[in-house]
Automatic annotation (TrEMBL), chains A, B:
<comment type="pathway">
    <text>tRNA modification; tRNA-queuosine biosynthesis.</text>
</comment>
<keyword id="KW-0479">Metal-binding</keyword>
<comment type="similarity">
    <text>Belongs to the queuine tRNA-ribosyltransferase family.</text>
</comment>
<feature type="binding site">
    <location>
        <position position="146"/>
    </location>
    <ligand>
        <name>substrate</name>
    </ligand>
</feature>
<comment type="subunit">
    <text>Homodimer. Within each dimer, one monomer is responsible for RNA recognition and catalysis, while the other monomer binds to the replacement base PreQ1.</text>
</comment>
<dbReference type="InterPro" id="IPR002616">
    <property type="entry name" value="tRNA_ribo_trans-like"/>
</dbReference>
<keyword id="KW-0808">Transferase</keyword>
<keyword id="KW-0819">tRNA processing</keyword>
<feature type="binding site">
    <location>
        <position position="216"/>
    </location>
    <ligand>
        <name>substrate</name>
    </ligand>
</feature>
<dbReference type="InterPro" id="IPR050076">
    <property type="entry name" value="ArchSynthase1/Queuine_TRR"/>
</dbReference>
<dbReference type="GO" id="GO:0016757">
    <property type="term" value="F:glycosyltransferase activity"/>
</dbReference>
<keyword id="KW-0328">Glycosyltransferase</keyword>
<feature type="binding site">
    <location>
        <position position="304"/>
    </location>
    <ligand>
        <name>Zn(2+)</name>
    </ligand>
</feature>
<feature type="binding site">
    <location>
        <begin position="92"/>
        <end position="96"/>
    </location>
    <ligand>
        <name>substrate</name>
    </ligand>
</feature>
<dbReference type="InterPro" id="IPR036511">
    <property type="entry name" value="TGT-like_sf"/>
</dbReference>
<feature type="active site" description="Nucleophile">
    <location>
        <position position="266"/>
    </location>
</feature>
<feature type="domain" description="tRNA-guanine(15) transglycosylase-like">
    <location>
        <begin position="14"/>
        <end position="366"/>
    </location>
</feature>
Length: 375, 375
């Protein structure tokens, strides 16, 4: 049986390309993980998600523990069988979602007591319970339970949350135990304060994890501040372990993060935008609901090989969006996930061939060009 | 180029199996036509609709003329290219939908003036305009413009509507002209009155059409009355032309109609039910939202080869329905369309082999059995 392992294939500046081996298959890095919140990537069959080039999905502990319930998923054979996805799955710890339930939660050193947003029932999440849920789900990459404060926050508040998260990381490691073929990732906190980030990285590496996430970013600080943190923070982490930037992001966020040494990312953006009529292309964002598309026989992106671009005109995509047809969400989500995976594939190839700077320049030039002229 | 033509392969009692040849492919009969109201079979990619075994789709003139507009569809290459479906398409005449716009329409000998339910704009439908729209859409099988009264209605009202429809059928034929490879179907009216049905059939056959629809049924009269009409009405129509029962129906309606000599049907039921959590199986209807499915690891139907049955448990289908995931509509619609097409394939084979009575008995026995016992 393959054990979990990370191999670095090439570096180009701070950017890295490599592969994470797992018993369920290889994850090519830099990797973008589509989000399957409640056991489905919205509006997509899992075989279609795989067809876009995704090697791994993210599942949400918070949503799945409430509905259908982690014990139920375990009885049904685990999340992979339940949702018909046999490649790797990373699960978050539930910490991020539960913290955002302002008014419905109560924090303590032990963990977080909270009420379900679905039915008001009471639940508890702690490092131990989060590890148990992620084990019940059958997650391949398990995340430590942490507290992620929204920014802006006072430095004292950020420091308190970070130190609590480090104690919880220790407890997470203890509770996770020894599970060959499964990985546990630590999560660095510390907001936008360099000393706190370094303290957090030191605490995590002292415990020792299979991979390290940069948490507490993309929470309101803006791209410049996020890149500012990444400029130093990835360097605090061991080079021989994957580095995961949580909840990122827009295409230019992703490219900038990869340029700063990030190996993995996840975001709901491609799927959520697909449902609201926004399509990502090499030339920026297309709002398919705009009347300018109503008579346009051209595809969204003539160079894209996804089904939405291969088989349909902008006029059709505009029509099904306006008519509120489910097919609109299906096609635009597929296109966006395809675009995000092509972005990652492009970066992996460029890094491997030592031409990442030129690739980045071309990426930004394409976006600066803007969408094709209306007919 | 193949011209339009109908070949009868076998009969078994009143039931018939055969094939309709068109330049866009063969339609095996008895045929069930999924409904693609606004240029999409809701929640389905067209290649998935084809994978269920559908040889032909139905498109709605009323919906398409209002949005995106027939002239626009024509500029974009016709409905087949627009919606990425290259097999045959039958379009209705718009008559049925426009008649149901009570308060928003005004009838005359010429046609129907009405207001759009989408934006209130004013439009006109007449035999001539309906033929023009169906030509602009590129329909393979065009339906005459008719008036279909809801039942119950007085015999006088039914007779008046039928005779108007026959005058409109004459005008439809005139306006349709000579279009090799395209077919025009007449629509019999006359409610549940035998003499009116016969008068209508005589009027239509005197004009001469490529096929004949039985209209004005499945509009509130109930299954017994509908079968009562079909018992004699199909016999009024030429045996060498396809017979189409419009807007039907539930599986047992379909089986009963085929037993009475019907060759084609259409209905929104499989797709609409899919979106509301109802699944059709050999053992009747399954309401996937019922709590009894929450822990059930078994497929909807162990003998079904659709993706919903092959890859997912009832527990998963229950979960995604409860979580209001788009995937629920996608999977259950697929299953239902697959079930309806398997039903047709089963009848075609049974008729061809002269065992339709036994097939019907097995069909009803399966449904009488009811769903599998909860665990």
């Amino acid at each position: 049986m393959t054990t979990f392992g990370f191999t670095l294939h090439a570096t180009d500046g701070a950017a890295r390309s490599g592969a994470i081996a797992t018993p369920r298959g290889t994850i090519r890095t830099p990797a973008f993980m589509p989000v399957g919140t409640a056991g489905t990537v919205k509006a997509m069959l899992p075989e279609s998600v795989a067809a876009t080039g995704a090697d791994i999905l993210l599942g949400n502990t918070y949503h799945l523990m409430l509905r259908p319930g982690a014990e139920r998923v375990a009885r049904l054979g685990g999340l992979h069988a339940f949702m018909h996805w046999n490649k790797p799955i990373l699960t978050d710890s539930g910490g991020f979602q539960v913290m955002s339930l302002a008014g419905l939660r109560k924090m303590s050193e032990d963990g977080v007591a909270f009420r379900s947003h679905i039915d008001g029932s009471t639940h508890m999440l702690s490092p131990e319970r989060s590890m148990e849920i992620q084990r019940l789900l059958g997650s391949d990459i398990v995340m430590c339970f942490d507290e992620c404060p929204a920014l802006p926050a006072s430095e004292a508040e950020v420091a308190r949350a970070m130190r609590l998260s480090m104690r919880w990381a220790e407890r997470s490691k203890q509770a996770f135990g020894d599970r060959p073929g499964h990985a546990l990732f630590g999560i660095m906190q510390g907001g936008v304060t360099r000393e706190l980030r370094e303290e957090s990285a030191d605490a995590l590496t002292a415990i020792g994890f299979d991979g390290y996430a940069v948490g507490g970013l993309a929470v309101g600080e803006g791209q410049e501040a996020m890149f500012g943190v990444l400029d130093y923070a990835t360097g605090f982490l061991p080079a021989d372990r994957p580095r995961y930037l949580m909840g990122v992001g827009k295409p230019d966020d992703i490219v900038g993060a990869v340029a700063r040494g990030i190996d993995m990312m996840d975001c709901v953006l491609p799927s959520r935008s697909g449902r609201t009529g926004q399509a990502f292309t090499r030339r920026g964002v297309v709002n398919i609901k705009n009347a300018s598309h109503a008579d346009d026989p051209r595809p969204l992106d003539e160079h894209c090989s996804c089904p939405a671009c291969r088989n349909y005109s902008r006029a059709y995509l505009h029509h099904v969006f306006r008519a509120q047809e489910i097919l609109s969400s299906m096609l635009l989500t597929w296109h966006n996930l395809h675009y995000f995976q092509e972005l990652m594939a492009g970066m992996r190839a460029a890094i491997a061939e030592g031409r990442f700077a030129a690739w980045q320049a071309a990426f930004h030039a394409g976006r600066a060009e803007g969408d094709i002229e209306p007919l």
